[in-house]
Amino acid sequence: MALKLLGFTFKQSQKIIVKRSADDKLEFISSLENVNSLGMQIALPLHNLKPMPLLKGEKVYVLISLQSFSIEFNTLVKGFKKDNIQLVVLEFPGDYKRVQRRNAVRLKVLMDVEVALLPQKPDQEPVFEKGQAVDISAGGMEIITRLSAERDQTVLVKFNLELDRNRVHNFCIRSKVRRVSSITPKSKRLGVEFLDMGMADSDRIFQFIFKKSTTSIN
C-alpha cells in the first residue's frame, strides 16, 4: 500500500528512525504503517528490542530515508492505537527539512570525463585532461587520469549523463581531491568529492544510478 506524506510517496512499513531530538545519538527503529485522518501511525520504536518510552504530548524527531536524501521533522505523540501490532500515532508535521545524503549509492561505470585543476586567477582558463570515471555516486567519483593533482586540491570535473533516450545532462562540478593513488608513473586514480552541487544535479546523478542499477538487475 502506498502512503502519502508531505508530498512524498512511501511504501507501507517504510523503515524510519525516531529520536528525542535532532541531536540525540540514541536512535529507535520503527516503520511507517499508515497515514490517515488520525495522523501518522508508526510501529512502536525499538532500540535493541527495547521499546522507546513515549507519552501523549511528547515531542519526537523523525527521519525517513529515501534513496538520495532523508526527510526529517519534529512532531508530537497524539496517542496510541492497537491494530495487529502496537502503533504510535503522531501528528502531521508542520514543516520538514530535506537532508542530502552525501554517502549515496555508488555505481561502477566506465565513463569518459575531463578533469582540470581549478585556475588560480579569475582570467585563467582551466586546462582539461581526459580521463575515465570508474565509479560514481551523488557525492563524488573515482577517476583515472594523467592530471597531476594532489590530495586536497580543488579540480573541475566535466561529464555527461544520459538520463533518458531524449535527455543528456552536462555537468561541470567543482570538486575536492580526497584520495590519490598511482597506477603507472603517468596515470593516477583520484577520488573526488563534489562541492557546491545543487540538489537538482544531485538528483539527476542519482536518477542515472538508479536507472542503470535497475537495468542491470533486470
Would you kindly provide a written description of the structure presented here, covering whatever features stand out?
There is one protein chain. This protein is mostly beta strands. The protein has two domains: 99 residues, Electron Transport, Fmn-binding Protein, Chain A (Pnp Oxidase, Chain A, Roll); 111 residues, Thrombin, subunit H, CATH 2.40.10. The chain is 9% helix and 56% strand. It has a six-stranded antiparallel beta barrel. It has a six-stranded antiparallel β-barrel with strand order 12-13-14-17-16-15. Strand 6 and strand 7 form a beta hairpin. The longest helix is centred in the C-terminal third of the chain and has 19 residues. The chain is elongated and about 65 Å long.
Question: Quick gist of this model?
Answer:
The protein is 9% helix and 56% strand.
Helix content: under 10%
Give the helices and strands as they follow along the chain.
EEEEEEEEEEEEEEEEEH
Name the overall outline: elongated
* Average of the residue pLDDT scores: 88
Radius of gyration: 22 Å
Query: What number of domains?
Result: 2
Classified by CATH, the class of the largest domain is: Mainly Beta
Euclidean distance between termini CA atoms = 23 Å
The largest pleated sheet is described as:
6 strands, antiparallel, barrel
CATH architecture of the largest domain: Beta Barrel
Which spans have pLDDT < 50 for at least 5 consecutive residues?
none
Quaternary status: single chain
Going across the major beta sheet, what is the strand order? 3-4-5-10-9-8
Q: How many helical stretches? A: 1
Give the strand tally: 17
Structural class from helices and strands? Answer: mainly beta
CATH superfamily of the largest domain: predicted glycosyltransferase like domains
